Amino acid sequence: MLRIPKTSRTIKTGSLLKSVAYIVIAGLALMLAIRHHTALSRSYHNATTHQAETYTELYLDNNTKLPTRVTIGKSYTYRVRVANHESGNRTYTLLATVTTAAGTVSSTTKTVSIAQGKAQDVPFTLSLAQLDQTAEITVTLQGTDQYVTFRSQS
Length: 154
Fold this sequence. Notes:
Blueprint: H1 13-48, E1 55-59, E2 76-85, E3 90-100, E4 103-114, E5 119-126, E6 134-141, E7 147-153
Antiparallel strand pairs: 1-2, 2-5, 3-4, 3-6, 6-7
C-alpha cells in the first residue's frame, strides 16, 4: 500500500498581505500604463492628423467702389464681404455705423446666414446730410474683433 505523506502548510498572515499588496500595486501600474498609452496615442493622432484651420473673414471686396466722395442727400450702396471658413454653416450679425464730428449719425444691423466654405456680399447704404461733412464708416462683425472702416466726405 502506498502512503502519501500529509503535508502541513500554513499561510502566514504577513505573506498573504504582502502578496495582496504586490497584486494591487501591479494592477495600479498596469492601469497607469494603459492610461498613459491612450493619452500618448491621442496626442500623436492630433499632432499627425491635418486639422483644417477655421475662421471667418470680413473685408471690403472692392475698395475702388467705396463712396468716399458723396453728394448731400443722395444714397450710396457699399458692400462688405463675409467669408465662412468655419466648420459648418454660420449666422453672422454685422453692425454698420456712420460717425461724424457730431457723433454717430446712423447705425444699421444686418444678419446673414452663410454656408460653410461660401462668401456673401452684404450691402449697406450711406447718406450724408451736410455739406463738407466727413464721416467714418465702420462695419463690425459682432461677437469678434473684426471690423472694416473707410472715410467718406460730402
